[in-house]
Design goal:
heterodimer, A: alpha/beta, Rossmann fold, 7-stranded parallel sheet, 8 helices, 18 strands, 26% helix, globular, B: alpha/beta, 9-stranded mixed sheet, two-stranded antiparallel ribbon, 6 helices
Amino acid sequence: MNLEEYKGVYVFAQQVDNVLNSIAFELIGKGKDLAEALGAEVTAVLVGSDVKNLADELAEYGADKVIVVDDPELKEYRTEPYAHALASVIKEFKPEIFLVGATAIGRDLGPRVSARIHTGLTADCTQLEIGDFPINPIPGKEQKHNQLLMTRPAFGGNTIATIACPDFRPQMATVRPGVMQKRAKVAGAKANVIEFNPGFTPDNKYVEILKVVKAVSDTVDIMDAKILVSGGRGVGSAENFKILDDLAAVLGATVSCSRAVVDAGWKPKDLQVGQTGKTVRPNVYFAIGISGAIQHLAGMEESDIIIAINKDESAPIFDVADYGIVGDLNKIVPALTEKLKAELAAK
Amino acid sequence: MKIVVCIKQVPDTKGGVKFNPDGTLDRAAMMTIMNPDDKAGLEAALRLKDQYGAEVTVITMGLPKAEDVLREAMAMGADKGILVTDRVLGGADTWATSQTLAGAIRNLEYDLIITGRQAIDGDTAQVGPQISEHLGIPVISYAQKIEIDGDSVIVERQYDDRYHVLKAKMPCLITALAELNAPRYMTPGGIFDACDAEITVWGRANLVDVEDSNLGLKGSPTQIAKASDKVRKGQGEKINKDVTESVDYIVDKLKVRHVI
């Protein structure tokens, strides 16, 4: 493999039902940082059926080029035709770096593609940077420059590891949604589109979709919320989440929760923050009655401002909170809601 | 019907993780368990066996002590156990691991291969789909329900906001979610039989159609640059005051940080 032939940062622009997923813009944003360090461009790879109209939106978030693979076989996500699309793009265009969101789609697609083209894939990355490998020179071993260094949590968030892929291209990573920052949108930007269709011939690996069943949900995705009011076991009951709802209403915030709350049946799983739930990084995260198990911290510790209210002074949540309040949430939360109402009314 | 289930012995991370002085994981000090998603995959296989009749073979790659996890699976009802172990397989990343398991599975007849979605030590979710790629068969990940329909499987495949009902011709590989089912317990008779059962042990020589250059640490495209204990964000301020003062404190901070 001639590594020099591989150029540019490519990102998989995931869409479902012809709506781009936020991860596409997050990957472009991170891709721009990496591309700037390498003196390269960011190319978004858009795969689907009748999706070409989405290309400009990718340009608005910073994609220098958009490769569109458009075919009726790609209408709904299926592993094989999507893997064929990405593997064909990689063989044709030879990217140096290829990023995929660590979504329920990306975590299926990434491994299949990396196995097809024989390269490494680092899962669920939370940090990406360009640097040397080995990080510090080792006598007798070549130190390669401009490598993608991919950092990820492992062992349930107890350790972090930084991984490199020095001898294969592209360097591939799946990236946790909600972790990388989007660039500011440049309204009206037009995409530089390259259309590419490698041909899709169904074989034994094409599965048949018998039915698509969408979950009915009218709540805001907690990953998109600017302010989260999050409750844990300490809230005490499903009914008592009312005091969190009231606080959230005053602040225009969204209510989320810890795993204990989901396990107790007080809230649905799509509101769960943490290792087995969602990773969030709102401007403000209220942790109310949440002790702060390591798996929970893994999903929220990147929030800009963390405010914790807990009666247990030694709760681990206080180790990551910017502002910790030791006290009774049943008294503090309603009083806080009233005070905020008065403050906002006075404005 | 013949079903192969891939299982992994993993450190139990629930009780926290212990480290050696040099920062590497102290595996010897930690309890080991059958990976939860794999156990759900095994249970799914055993239910298909109960319902349709099947021979269930469990296979694991690991150190010789990983034999324990095969015996546990056999005590639950698996028919055969295969341990793939060899010094040259050590240090494998997901590429090299999936090459190894695919090379072992090529010795077997199978209609279905079931793996867990992901292991709790690495959390990569890569090995199942990669095995299917090496074997040239379809993969259905994140299965929340599995049924057999003639020569096909019908699977509910979970996504973030929906599920797809998918139909694939066998042979096919399925990755199972821990939510799929509640795994059965070992039976006393099963434990008794499993203690005496013969475990097949395979090494490098038994792997079919795999190059040396795709095995172990040397065959792994990804390499660890550094590993460390998680560095937490430093603790901020903490107050312990009455309700009014606590509320004033929060409102003041929200103002200072321009939230309100």
